[in-house]
Amino acid sequence: xxxxxxxxxxxxxxxxxxxxxxxxxxxxxxxxxxxxxxxxxxxxxxxxxxxxxxxxxxxxxxxxxxxxxxxxxxxxxxxxxxxxxxxxxxxxxxxxxxxxxxxxxxxxxxxxxxxxxxxxxxx
Length: 123
Fold this sequence. Notes:
- The chain is α/β, with parallel strands linked by helices.
- Helix content is 42%, strand content 20%.
- It has one domain (6-115): Response regulator (Rossmann fold, 3-Layer(aba) Sandwich).
- The chain contains five helices and five strands, in the order βαβαβαβαβα.
- A five-stranded parallel sheet has the order 2-1-3-4-5, sandwiched between helices.
- β3, α3 (65-75) and β4 (80-85) form a beta-alpha-beta unit.
- α2 (37-46) packs parallel to α3 (65-75).
- The chain starts with 5 loop residues before the first strand and ends with a helix.
């Protein structure tokens, strides 16, 4: 199966946000993209549909990706999450994103790796 699901993308780097949104929309996903976690959270709290997947940067101003995930899941418990970052594993562990059931993609990523990772999480 490919596309159709609702994906919330939160990334403070505008180029990566636009690229991720474009890739996912091209593959049929309904994408809601935000460049800051506060705006994304406000949208998610008022969104009455289902969020199938949250794709979020880990290191952002205002709120880190792990905190955003927890707050989104409080309102949308079925939402799965894919963290993305250019930081090393050591820094990721310090930020609360560790291995063991956590989905992660390292930036920069290819179109194919993003599409495959998203589909694997949703299937």
